[in-house]
Amino acid sequence: MTGPIQRPGYRNTVLAAASLLAILCAVPASAEEIYKSDYRVSLLGLTIAKSYFTTRVADGAYEVSGSLRSSGLVTVFDDTKGTIDVKGQFAKTGAVPNSYVVKYRHGKKDKSTSIAFAKGNVTETTNVPPVQKKDKWVELAPESLLGAADPISGVMVAADSIGQVCTQTLHLYDGQTRVDLKLSPVGAPQPFSTKGFKGDAVTCSVKFIPIGGYRQGRDAIEYLKNKSKISLTFASLGKSGIYSPVQAKISTQIGTVTVYATRFEKMQ
Q1: CB within 8 Å of 180: residues ≥ 6 apart
Q2: Full-prediction pTM beyond 0.70?
Q3: HSE-up of residue 34 (Cα within 13 Å, Cβ side)
Q4: Which residue has the higher pLDDT, 220 or 22?
């Protein structure tokens, strides 16, 4: 889910959670509108990462740019920082990406992933360094990249009402792994507030379904598929019809990762 939805170690738990939520609710408009969102990632009550994002929307197109990095005491053991840039446009079905680029540094190692899209389909992927395919690798079938979106565009959910958000399945691709996130309702919308936002939000339970681009039998994937409890909470700014996450909870083998929007604000 920054790349990688699942890759080894703490670093990728942070990047996965941040990628899943590090977006703003973007409202289609003719004049440019700008939104700011900040997210805090915590594990066992300790802040382990922070992210800061800006979304610009004009003439039905969107650009999301942001940064994330590990935070607190964990930087002593794992200092990771990166940037994300996404471009696309809005359609009745939601956000349709054109490009996704994530670059990050872990220690002294630089890594990047670039994905190009056309008409809602993945057309090209570049990973530096290249993905290392190991034994029992589940290959990606060409058809699995049709209608897939990057981890940021893919969680901008289009719905006629807040009650329809949790009836959808999100098709995500991070440059290596393709997964589906099947949403299901768990209750009525509830009030949510943070800096720049006060209104209703709806929480969905999430079923993690791996499609391809991973090693079969891998503990982390099997845990997310069969044991993990995942929830996403969505809210909308204004009457856009686009709903974005303001909170996520993902149980992992080392504890529950929580991502919370500390800011969700329209600037102009």
Answers
A1: 169, 170, 171, 172, 209, 211
A2: yes
A3: 5
A4: 220
